[in-house]
Amino acid sequence: MKTYQVNQEGFYGDFGGAYIPEILHRCVEELRNAYRKVLADEGFQKEYDALLKDYVGRPSPLYLAQRLSEKYGCKIYLKREDLNHTGAHKINNAIGQVLLARRMGKKRIIAETGAGQHGVATATVCALMGMECVVYMGKTDVERQRVNVERMQMLGARVEAVTSGNMTLKDATNEAIRDWCCHPADTYYVIGSTVGPHPYPDMVARLQSVISKEIKKQLMEHEGRDYPDYLMACVGGGSNAAGTIYHYLDDERVKIILAEAGGKGVETGLSAATIQLGRLGIIHGSKTLVMQDEDGQILEPYSVSAGLDYPGIGPMHANLAAQKRATVLAVNDDEALWAAFELTRLEGIIPALESAHALGALEKVKFQPSDIVVLTVSGRGDKDIDTYLKYKNNPEIF
């Protein structure tokens, strides 16, 4: 039987590893040696689980969306990560990594963020635990996610607006890595997705796997079986998708559908559909699929969604696509916006733009009436209201 888990060297098939500057070797090696021991420690697990329950509000509901199910001719359950404290799945990972950092004796936390949800989650946990927090965010994203910037600052974090490149997630990550290089001894870098050098992709996936752990239990309660026919999630770096599928990776009964950001269309040059358009390369310390030109220079991605606006992809997801374990669909801006308004009007749930891409993939799959589908709503749409308002009266979309 195939396995899709990470190996001892940090690779998922041909993807992964740790390609880092020499100055960070000690930091990454220290983390690699610590993370599994700490995550498996009984004291850590007890504190982590208690915070997920009493602070985050887990388990998040698995909601049967009746009207959406009728529309698509199957049974659709929504995994409601939007109902977590801070409004997204990102808090699951932030709590785990800051607890780990504290056990490793680190005093200063840095993070990157695109849509702002990971930045808010990290700032939230740092406020809870009394840790210094610096969040790097592209200037473009600072402007389109203003509310999340204000939330981070209110929580006591310093938000650094990055003005290099196209001033989005890639550039924020670059600056966070530069900071880490300058302060390797006392600083812990909380990466928000399943990207970066090993052990980050595996560690983030493990911390987010609470999502699929809950899905198994909740489906048993709802349906008398612990697996769906389809799992669906949006994928940029890939953290909510990794959490959604983690306990089902080797269960071939379950079809995996990942929705990436098609932008204006994969043929337009304005896209973030990395699995569709990427070639093997190295970005932010990991060998994966990267959008690049003939000379290997990274191309600037585009998406209406700040959280999916990234030219790489987590190595787990690159491998799942290469092994044909997952079907990856490019969902364009207009399709995602349309799907967001559809969910809002059918179910009274306003999703994050990132989650809307997963919803936009529903139109692209032929379901049977007996199919059970679990789709993760990775975050709530409060942060995207300004974007939604720009489009709500556009006759080309609605």
Automatic annotation (TrEMBL):
It holds the Pfam family PALP. It comes from the Bacteria. Residues 57-379 form the Tryptophan synthase beta chain-like PALP domain. The modification N6-(pyridoxal phosphate)lysine is found at residue 90. Its EC number is 4.2.1.20. GO terms for molecular function: tryptophan synthase activity. InterPro entries: Trp_synth_b_CS, Trp_synth_beta, Trp_synth_beta/beta-like, TrpB-like_PALP, TrpB-like_PALP_sf. Belongs to the TrpB family. The beta subunit is responsible for the synthesis of L-tryptophan from indole and L-serine. This is Tryptophan synthase beta chain. It comes from Phocaeicola plebeius.
